Amino acid sequence: MALTAVLGLIVALVGACPAAAKEEGAARVEWGACPEDVPADPPQLQCATVPVPLDYADPEGAQIEIMISRLASANPDKRRGVLLLNPGGPGGSGLGLSKLLVSQGIAQTVLDSYDLIGMDTRGVGHSTPVSCGFTTDQPYFGNIPPYAVDDAAVEAQATIARGVAEQCAAKDHDGHLSQLTTANYARDLDRIRAALGEEKASFLGYSYGTALGAAYASMFPDTTDRIVLDSNIGDTFLDHDGMRRYGRGMEETFQDFAKWAAARNDSYGLGSTPQEVRATYLRLAEQLDKTPALGIDGGLFRFSTFASLYNESSYGMAAQTWQSLLEPGTAPPQEKPAPGPVPTDNNWSVFLAVTCNDVEWPEDVQTYQRAAAEDRQSYPLYGGAAANIMPCAFWQSGPTEPPVQVSDQGPSNILVVQNQRDPVTPLRGAELINEKFGARSRLVSVDGSGHGAFVLGKNPCALNVTTNFLVNGTMPEQDVACAARTSG
């Protein structure tokens, strides 16, 4: 999602006003201008770096720098503390997330209550970035494997996945990739809290950020304040089972697109009922498996449709693409990218490192072949992609410590927020994490579609419950089911 500019909103930055004396040995934060590529219009965002150990098993050894940003509260009388932010990934830059939330209408009471602290987590962007050296001319196209139509397709992808794992290992000259883990990210969060002079810190994380937030609340229950987990993976890590839930998420969310397209059949001609739209998708996918058109094969068609379900604003472009594929002579083919580095190299590299380092992945190709065959039947829209083999099967560093266990011991300070239909993090993930936290959490499920509920989803119930929790500490007495928002 693009970080849009904030128009007509004046929020003055105030000087550093720590809530407590800095902990012994904590780094000193010196705020200054942010890098030019960080959204700062109007220029109220400040940035700083915080040193952390590369390897927490050797805390006095090599240090790396984490860049953080601050959108400070302009109301010291109402300021509660800091709200640490994570946009997901792993691998997403979070330095400009506060500006996005402002542009999307986050409540002024939240802005008054907290300094919003964005960051590039270790390995990302301005925080000692890593690279596997991905280029546009190699057959690797991102973090989700392509749809596998049969066992041979899984076998072919295994060759590519092995090559990617070897490539990443060869590029890791300084050993940084092996230190990219959710546990280390959580440790970094607590170091940032201490450097800011705060006794406790609140946290808002989206998507993968929910895994990080769950780890943070589990590892540091005494120094975490109010935790919001939005669009949930279901644990502190993403494993093969978690990836396979993408297939379920697409099945559940596709129905909203199908209804939308059916209501506009006179314009796009994709089907007059949701069932007809689904049949058009399956027919197009199978057709493109055999004969790509406009530079799009069956795998890319399925992936692009999956991605369009993240937000209803993408439906129109998806429908237009389908229409072009149904009438191939009406649109020019997509141009191939020029040879060179992939612009998302850093994001892809971090995603793989964290995902592969957090937990053991199956190593035999047959496991993925069985899973893909099962999910092609159970989730025919996308299961053959989500269950396909990843470089994690051949990752050379592997987990350096067990994954963080979700702890139900600690304060009841965790709000789990979730759209009921989400293509990448389906409702089941929120139910799982809520069950694991027990009495520590409450689930706010939203009758809505897409990725991101609080602020981004525009549902008034979810906005009110979450804002009230962050500002006033009001935890619902029981789980909340928010009705669908009315149009307008």
Automatic annotation (TrEMBL):
Record flagged with keyword Signal: yes
UniProt family annotation: Belongs to the peptidase S33 family.
InterPro entries, A to Z: AB_hydrolase_fold (IPR029058), Pept_S33_TAP-like_C (IPR013595), Serine_prot/Carboxylest_S33 (IPR051601)
Protein name in the entry: Alpha/beta hydrolase
Domain of life: Bacteria
Domain Peptidase S33 tripeptidyl aminopeptidase-like C-terminal: 385-482
Signal sequence, start to end: 1-21
Keywords noted in UniProt: Hydrolase, Signal
GO molecular function ontology, one term from the record: hydrolase activity
Organism: Nocardia callitridis
SUPFAM superfamilies to which the protein is assigned, alphabetical: alpha/beta-Hydrolases (SSF53474)
Organism taxonomic ancestry: Bacteria, Bacillati, Actinomycetota, Actinomycetes, Mycobacteriales
